[in-house]
Each structure stands twice: as C-alpha cells, then as structure tokens.
Amino acid sequence: MHAQPPVKGEPTMRPPTVTASINGREVTVPAGTSILDAARQVQVNIPTLCKHPDLLPTAACGLCIVKVAGNRKLPRACATALEPGMDITTHDSELTEVRRSTLELILSNHPNACLTCGRNNHCELQTLAADFGIRQDYIPRYVRKLDPDCSTGSIVLDFEKCIKCGRCVQVCQQMQNVWALSLLERGIHTRMAPAGDISLADSPCIRCGQCSAHCPTGAIIEKDEIASVWTALRDESKFCTVQIAPSVRVALGEAFGYPPGTDLTGKIYSVLRRLGFRAVFDTNFSADLTIIEEASEFVARFAHGTGELPLITSCCPAWVDYMEKYFDDLIPNFSTAKSPQQMLGALAKTYYAEKSGIDPATMYQVSIMPCTAKKYELQRTDEMRASGYSDVDVCLTTRELARMIKQSGIAFHELPDGEADSILGTYSGSGLIFGNTGGVMEAALRTAYFKVTGKNLEKAAIDIQPVRGLQGIKTAAIDVADTEVRVAVAHGLANVEKLLLEVRAARAAKEPPPYHFIEVMACPGGCIGGGGQPYGVSDEVRRQRMEGLLAGDKSMKLRFSHENPEIVRLYDEYLGEPLHGRAHELLHTRYQARPSYRR
C-alpha cells in the first residue's frame, strides 16, 4: 500500500519539464501539458466551450486559438502541447475579433431563449457572449426546429440548444461507457441525439445526468419539478416531509457563493422548514440503516455462505440500471438493499406516520438528491411502494433546491442552524461519508467488522484509507479477525466494467472470486459528483466536497452505523432483525434482466 523508496545511491527520477513564454511570462510545466493548462499557471484564462477538465480535448469550438511566434497558423490551445521555447500570445485585438466572430457563428445556430432556458445565468455560452459584448445578431439565425426529448422523466434533451461541442458524447461513451448519445448527420445539420435517433428512454441511457453536468448550455438539463413541490406545500391537506442526501450539504453552498465542501447541514434544515416542510429528515439516517442491512448481507454471504460473492452494492440507481442492462448475469451478486432515499421514504410513511399519528395517505415525501437518476428510481413503482404508497413522491436535485431557495426570497446566508426531526434524523459519520466514492465500502466494513468480531475497529483503524480518494478503481485486502477480505471500489462506469469482467472471468474458470465485496458509484467521485449537483464540477471540486464529508465524519463522536441510537431503537421497536420480517419487506427490493442490452 506504500510506494517503495528510491534505492540508496540512485538518483530520483523526475518527470521532464518544458519551459516557454506566455504573454511575456515564463512558465515551466510537465512535458505534454497543453497551452490551455499552462496558461492557467500564469493566471491567464483562454476561453473555450468544448474543453472540460474531465475530458480529452476535441478542439471543436475553435475559441481557444492562440498565436505562436514563427507559426503562421493559430493553434488551438486545448489540443496543442507546450513546447520548449514557445513564445505564445493568448490575447490581442486580432484574437479577440476572431473569437467574437466564432461566437457569433455559434449563436447563429442557437435559439435566442436565454430568459426561459434552464441554464439561464449558468450557461457558458451566455457568459462568453456577455464577456465579448455581443449585443445583436450580425449573422442571420438558422435554428433547426427540433422537439425536446422528455421521455426519461429524469433529464431533458433540448436539441435546439446544442452547440455540437461533443462533451456529452464523450462523457456518455468514454467516461460512463453507456453509448446512449452520439452526433448524427453532418455539416450545418449535425446534431446531438440518442444513438440510432431513437428516444432517450429507449436508448441505453442510465439517467446518471453526467451529460447534463458537463453540457455548457441548456441542451441537457434535469427535469424541473419545483412547481409540483410548491403546489404540494400550498395544499393544506398534505403533510409535506423532506429528506436531504449526504453530499447535498457540501455542494449546495456553491450556488450561494460558499467554497465547495462547506458543510451547511444546519442552514439546510432551517431553510427547508422555512419553505414549509412540516418534517425534515436526513438521508444520512437511512444511509446508516442501509449499512446495517448491507453489512448483515455481506456477513451472511462471506461468513455463512448464504449467497454468491462478491456482494455488489446497490444504492446507486444509475448503476442498478446499468447492471440490469449490461450485467444481468450478476443479479444474484447484487445487494437487495434499497437505496437510502427509498428506505427513508418507506419508513416515513410507516414508522414515522405510526409514531406521529399521521395518515400516510396525506404524506407527500420530497427528497433532495445530488442525482438525476434518483428521479428515475421513483418510477420503479412496483418495487418502491413498500409503505402501500409511493415511498417518495418527488425528487429534486441540488440545483433545483438552490433555485427554490432563491425563488422563496429567504436570505440563506443569514439563517441560523436548525435541527432535523430526531426520529429519522440522527446519523453517524458512517452515514455521512456515503456521499463519497469508497464511503459505502468504508462504512460497511466498519459495521461488518463489528458483526464478525463483536468489537469496533480501533480508533487508528476507523479511517480505511485504501478505499478513499479519486482513483477510478481502488482495491484492498482488509484483515477481519485474521481473515482476508478482498474489496474493490469503482466510480465512473467505464471503470466498473473492468472489475466485473474480472468477476465473470473467474466464474467462467471456476476460480474463487477476485473480490468479496464491491462498491460501485456511477458518477465520478460518487454522489459528490452527481449529475444533479451545482455546475462546474472537476476533480478539484470533487476533492473539496469529499474533504467536507470526511472532515464531518472525523469530527463526530458517533462514527459507527450500528451505534446510532435511533437505528437501534428502530430495530428494537419496529423492524426486528436485519434481513428478515418487516426489515426485509420495507428495506429490500428486486431486479430484472434487460437482455437486449447485454454485451
């Protein structure tokens, strides 16, 4: 787990570097660094619409052109590596005019609908048009009339607003390995669309929303359901309740000027009450509950042989959708535990309703999630009605909650910290770190260790470092009572296939599984990088959000899910034993194969 130190007497190898000049300032960067990234090292921002920190350069938009002394061409900074001795000019009057003309060409194929667009004030094209002072149309507009695709109920494709940057296609095909989106036709008629020109709902789309998170315009947005929530809040016959996911608390603040990773749990509780919700729950509570069920399931399989290994986590609905489409042969390996969103919804309309004397038929449960796929999860109606009603009625993304707060006129910065409703609101640090890649695994191992040994991990061992961080695939061998437990964590679905092909290969060869326990999150970084989080995601932003959750976990006295007093009380008073009886009826689900997508 630790890198080997250099052999004594041998020189330490350092990566080669390149030194050049950008706008008269010397810059030294690792060899292979693009001019675009090198310019940022000397505080110069070169405009671009197609390049995103998560993605490879495509040079599609043509805005990042620069001048290089001795070169008659205008290379594109995103796709051109810095070379030794280059003398680069990134901004002058000529480059500004070329960039303005390029923007005018892009705008000539773009609808003039900023005020009614879902990305108004958060659109990269809109921002650049304002920066370059484009106030009127100099090129006649030609906008092809194309109806939006609303078929998934989670995300909306508004084809007219696509600028053909290719980000969504690269995200869908390379980062997520889903291949639902492509670019069709050629020339001025080029357009983004589901592969095969079918509806998005009929495509392999898993509703993860990473296309939306990376789109620079309003061509791909989440389905906005704020109006239905306002309507419910005004209906005096409804008892409106709400829950917030772990990662929402360290990302929402970005919409109000806070740095990424700022934990605003208390303010969020307060603003939700001010919005009119009559009970405020915390999905961290049901994350603890998920850990109890999932850890129990793992121990039953690993220690008692009651099911197939590896056990694979199931709390991410985009991953569930992907698994059913591409790896349905591994359904027996899938944890049957519902996601925390659905567990809390089921308990709100049963346990909480019973304790509070509320008719569950009047309850309207809203969830605030970092994820567009959570909207899709609510559509799995046959599985998500354990309470006898829709366990969760509507899901809002973090972005939607931010807009709702701004609509309300509430001064978010000035709110005092509030509290959640205690019956479904107390949580441990293990529930909090659910929002990170590796967090589910770490929390489950903490409780699995207790279930096997009867004691908690020592303080120095609580932080299970091998499963942390943003590496795409993380593997480790964990010692549990002198028994090796092999675990793996993958985030970003392109990484997941590599792990699952290993599992398939071992099974075909009738060999022991390469891993005993696998955690999967569809989105890079896990829920902190979800498709419904504030725009502007990058690995640095993901890292800051992750640090916010890990710091919260470390500061808590209660760090084990199985020690959450409300969880203990819930099992004693209502659920009984994990995996059995009422716990099984309310907290577990089933899956179905979709063999038409199987590879």
Helix content: 25-40%
**Class per helix and strand makeup:** alpha/beta
Q: Nearest-angstrom radius of gyration?
A: 25 Å
Strand order of the largest sheet: 2-1-4-3
CATH topological fold name of the largest domain: Rossmann fold
Report how far apart the termini are. 34 Å
Strand percent estimate: 5-15%
Number of strands: 16
Tally the structural domains.
Answer: 3
Could you please describe the fold and organization of this structure?
With 599 residues, this protein is α/β, with parallel strands linked by helices. The protein has three domains: 17-91, Ubiquitin-like (UB roll) (Roll), CATH 3.10.20; 104-222, 2-Layer Sandwich (Alpha-Beta Plaits), CATH 3.30.70; 232-597, Rossmann fold, CATH 3.40.50.1780. It is built from 18 helices and 16 strands. It has helices spanning 35-40, 93-108, 124-131, 167-175, 210-214, 226-234, 265-275, 283-304, 317-326, 340-356, 373-377, 398-408, 429-432, 439-453, 493-508, 539-555, 565-575, 581-587; strands at residues 17-22, 25-30, 67-68, 87-89, 155-157, 181-184, 191-194, 220-222, 239-244, 279-282, 311-312, 363-369, 394-397, 473-480, 483-491, 517-521. Strands 2-1-4-3 form a four-stranded mixed sheet, with no helix packed on it. A four-stranded parallel sheet has the order 10-9-12-13, with helices on both faces. A four-stranded mixed sheet has the order 11-16-15-14, with helices on both faces. Helix 8 crosses helix 10 (340-356) and helix 8 packs across helix 14 (439-453). The protein is globular. Residues 1-9 have low confidence and may be disordered.
